[in-house]
Amino acid sequence: MTLSLQDVPLAVLLGIGATAVMDAWLLLLKRLGVPTLNFAFIGRWVGHLLRGQVAHAAIAKAAPVRGELAWGWLTHYAVGVAFAGVLLSLQGAAWVHSPTLLPALAVGMGTVAAPLLVMQPAMGSGFAASRTPTPLKNCLRSLANHTVFGLGLYLSALVIALISR
């Protein structure tokens, strides 16, 4: 299946909802003392990416980029919307009106490939956080976070289904 132009608003709603659920989870973790990602680093990476630099030895040591926190949050939500589009492409827009948990969780868990295989290496943490002090712990934390995103896809679809009835 493919995502049609008329399904884009659904992808936007699903993506924003699922990303907000993930953010609530990350806020809870932060309040419990669990380290979470600084979205300014995502914005810093995107800012440098727009200037042609893909990889960094350590994104925290890279030159700051004007508006990096805003860029980070914008990127975070845009990627969430894109991943929601993937779910709709695989399941079809009808899934939103009668959602099931498994496809949402599967897509959510699958999205962990983006940080493990693209963002972490590009930001200096290595593939699957291999250059961090606790790679397995970091990978499992990423998987948990992206599973929560998948749950957010499902919950967002439930809300849309309830509202649209």
UniProtKB/TrEMBL annotation:
Residues in the signal sequence: none
Transmembrane residue ranges: 7-28, 70-90, 102-123, 143-163
InterPro entries given in the database record: DUF2938
Iron-sulfur keyword on record: no
Keywords, ordered alphabetically: Membrane, Transmembrane, Transmembrane helix
Top-level taxon of the source organism: Bacteria
The protein, known as: DUF2938 family protein
Organism expressing this protein natively: Acidovorax delafieldii (Pseudomonas delafieldii)
